[in-house]
Amino acid sequence: MKSLLRRVQSIRTVTLNARTCRLQSTSDESSPLKKLINEASTFGDVSNPEPELRWATEPYARLQAVQEAPTRVDPRETSVLLFPGQGSQFVGMGKKLLDLPAARDLYELASSVVGWDVRRVCTEGPEEELQRRCQVAVLVTSLAALERAREERPGAVERVRAAAGFSLGEIGALVFAGALPFEQALRLAELRAAAMQAAAATRAGGMLTVWLAADARLAEALTRAREHAAEKGVRGPVCAVANYLYPGCKVVAGDEAALTWLEANGRAWGVKRAARVRVAGAFHTPLMAAAEDAVREALRHIQVRRLLF
C-alpha cells in the first residue's frame, strides 16, 4: 500500500492551489469567487490512474465488473450506503480508525493532495480549523470508515448495490461508486468549501434544524421570519426549508435575523424544538448562488465515469 501511495503521488500533476483557501477581498478582479472560477479550469489537469492504482479512486469496487442490476434484490444480501454531509464533523473523528493501515494510508494520501494534515485536523482539531476544513475532513473520514465496516461486517461493503449522500456526501458516494477519482473529489470538496465560505462571508446566515408538531404552520412562521428580517433592514430576506430530513423534522436556512426570530418565536407556530447546524452559511438556499459558478466550472472539467454498480 505504501508503495502504491508513492506511485499515486508521483503521477499526480496538479495540486489544489492554496489561494482557494486564502480568501481576502471581494472586489472586482480580486474577488475570491472570481479567483475560484479561474482556478476551477485546472480540474481536468489530473493524470488518469493506471489500473493497479485505482485504490486511490475506486477503493472498494475496483475488482468488481460492471454488471446489470439484478431484477430482484434480496435485502439480506444487499447493502446501501448513505454518506454524511457537513455538520457531522467533530474533533476526534477518525481516531478509532487509525489502527487500520488502509485508513491511515487514505488520510496520508488525502493530505498529500490538499496540502494540509487531514488526519491531524480530524483527530486533534482545533475546533475552528476543523469547521473551516470540514468538507474534506468529512469526505475522507467517511471513506476511511468503510475500512472499519469491512472489518466488523464482512461482505457488507462488497454487497453494496447503491450509494447516496447527504449534500457533501454525494461526492463521497460518487468516489465509492467509481464515478469520481479520489484526488479530484478532494479538490472539488476543497473548492466547494472555499466558494461557499466566500458566499457566506458576504451575508450573515445559517441553518437551523426544527422539530415540528403535527399541526405546525411552518410556512407561516417562515414568512413571518422573513418579514422580521426585512424590518431589521435585510434586503430580499431569505428563510426557507433547505433539507427535508424525515416526517416532522426539517432544516431551515436563511438570513441570521430571520433564524434568530424563528428560534425565539417558532413555538407559537408549532416548532417544538430548534437546534443550530454547525455550518457557516445558509446552504441550499439562494444565498449560495454566488458559489455556483466556481463549482460548476470545476465540474465542467471533471470527467464523470460510469458507475461500477
UniProtKB/TrEMBL annotation:
UniProt GO molecular function: transferase activity
One Pfam family named in its UniProt record: Acyl_transf_1
GO BP annotations listed: fatty acid biosynthetic process
Gene3D superfamilies the record matches: Malonyl-CoA ACP transacylase, ACP-binding, Malonyl-Coenzyme A Acyl Carrier Protein, domain 2
Stored SUPFAM superfamilies: FabD/lysophospholipase-like (SSF52151), Probable ACP-binding domain of malonyl-CoA ACP transacylase (SSF55048)
Source organism superkingdom: Eukaryota
Domain Malonyl-CoA:ACP transacylase (MAT), first and last residues per copy: 82-309
Name recorded for this polypeptide: Putative malonyl-CoA-acyl carrier protein transacylase, mitochondrial
Species of origin: Papilio machaon (Old World swallowtail butterfly)
Taxonomic path: Eukaryota, Metazoa, Ecdysozoa, Arthropoda, Hexapoda
